[in-house]
Amino acid sequence: MKNTIMRNWIVAIVVIAVVAALVVLSGLFRTSSVAPQAQQTLSPERMQTLIPRGRELALAGDCFGCHSMPQGPMGAGGLAIATPFGTLYSTNITPDKQYGIGNYTRADFHRVMRDGIAPGERNLYPAMPFVFSHITTPDDIDALYAYNMSIPAMPIANKSNTGVFVLPVRPFMDFWTLLNFPDRKVLRNDQRSAEWNRGAYLVEGLAHCGSCHSPRNFMMGVEFSRSLQGGEVDGVVVPDITAAALAKRGFDVPTLSTYLATGMAPQGTSFDSMYTVTHFSTSAMEPEDVKAVAIYLLTGKDGKLALPAASPVPLPQAAVPKNGTPMAAGRLAYMASCAGCHGMEGEGIPNVSPAMKGNAALAMDNPQTIINVVLNGTPTQIFKNGERMYAMPPFAHRLNAPEVADLVTWIRAEWGGQTVPVTVEQVSAQETAVK
Ligand code: HEC
Ligand code: HEC
Ligand code: HEC
């Protein structure tokens, strides 16, 4: 008797699970958020007038930073995006009819930007940041469409993805979206300035800053409840860019705007994946939009701009380290390996290398990002207006883990106000990731 009840229960649960899975897989719950008027085509004149606005939005959205190879034709795709499940390639979004999106209707384009679904009910992978572009207004999507259709068509075939992405997994993305794609709305606040509202619209939408700066769950879904509080990309810790954290690391509206508009500021230069953001996206945006982003980021919950903290003073144990301590060893290593470029006093050299004094990277709570810079160095990077810095050499093969630990401990205590020593384990963990 008991067994039969048990069996009936199990059968019932299995049936419910299968039905639920079929409902999800059929995409029934994935209603479209595209406005009905998107079905009508836009007149060629309307398309023409929308192009300049579309270009600005495409820059803010870094569409072509991601949809182009570094040297390749604009929009032809092919950029590799590594994920824990395999490599995805960005696709050709030029108006080529065979290989690109030349056959897209206005409504097709809206559906990609708002719902993450390509023609033929093809679920897109969230490497395309549709969870962010979802909040873009229909008018702005029209502008993006007009601009996108105006660039030269490139007959270049898409590359094949690898890993699990070779399997027919697209339909299963329905489960992912069910759990990770909330119907977000534009953050509008009439108590705040037009600039704040514009900044919120860009940061939380097209500019998708949170795709790197927000934590992700185990499904790689963005945790919007902890928006911009810091994340991780390719094993590199991405800093918290909420108002209090930015102000603590010394940013105010002018310096943050300069950082985004040029890639360099008294708080340091952009490097790693942030370099691509400043290089392709924020440095090409209109100054008003960049300022709006800075104002939005630096406005606290109370609606006031967070006040920048003064550069931290050197901790006593770093300023005058006792002989034989790790601090003394770290200071010596800095003088031997780094001071030639970054200065004895951490003052840096204009057009050669950034200052360490006042550098926001040293004030990050997690030392992992700078450990990575020291181990891997940085390539020569070109900043706005052709400004450039030297390349920073990698130190992975010149300094051992204890030396790097002492060195990073010292520079953080000297210029970053960070008291917690860096351990050999923290360095070793990064050494295995040396590129
Ligand atoms: C972080 C990288 C990234 C950014 C930024 C990005 N995309 Fe994408 N996009 C992708 C990837 C990867 C795919 C392919 C996803 C897939 O295969 O499921 C894609 C797919 C697309 C598609 C679908 C093409 C098709 O297969 O039919 C369109 C259209 C598109 N993107 C347009 C844009 C526009 C417009 C922007 C800027 C607002 C943009 N993308 C920004 C990575 C990006
Ligand atoms: C040959 C000159 C050179 C040497 C030697 C050098 N660096 Fe650098 N370093 C640079 C340059 C140039 C950058 C900025 C690269 C960029 O963003 O384009 C940089 C960036 C950095 C950064 C990231 C902060 C920022 O604002 O970009 C840190 C941290 C850093 N260096 C620490 C060190 C340490 C520690 C050493 C010694 C182990 C060292 N550097 C040795 C040239 C050098
Ligand atoms: C592709 C990933 C990625 C995206 C997208 C991204 N960032 Fe970053 N960001 C990083 C990484 C990695 C760092 C750390 C390296 C550095 O400081 O240059 C960083 C650093 C920063 C810093 C410097 C913080 C400090 O204290 O040194 C600021 C400010 C910043 N990002 C703002 C933004 C804004 C605004 C956006 C959206 C327009 C954005 N980021 C989008 C990866 C990203």
Automatic annotation (TrEMBL):
CC terms in the record's Gene Ontology section: plasma membrane
Co-factor binding details: Binds 3 heme c groups covalently per subunit.
Keywords, alphabetical: Cell membrane, Heme, Iron, Membrane, Metal-binding, Repeat, Signal, Transmembrane, Transmembrane helix
Keyword check for Zinc-finger: no
Residues in Cytochrome c domain copies: 49-152, 194-301, 325-415
Record: residues binding heme c 2: 209, 212-213
InterPro entries given in the database record: Cyt_c-like_dom, Cyt_c-like_dom_sf, Cytochrome_c-type_DH, Membr-bd_ADH_cyt_c
Cofactors, names only: heme c
Subcellular location: Cell membrane
TM region(s), chain numbering: 9-29
SUPFAM superfamilies in alphabetical order: Cytochrome c
Pfam families associated with the record: Cytochrom_C
Binding site for heme c 3: 338, 341-342
Entries under Gene3D superfamilies matching the protein: Cytochrome c-like domain
Residues annotated for heme c 1 binding in this entry: 63, 66-67
GO MF term list: electron transfer activity; heme binding; iron ion binding; oxidoreductase activity, acting on CH-OH group of donors
Coarse class of the protein's main subcellular location: membrane
Listed PANTHER family: ALCOHOL DEHYDROGENASE CYTOCHROME C SUBUNIT, BLL4482 PROTEIN-RELATED
Protein name per the record: Cytochrome c domain-containing protein
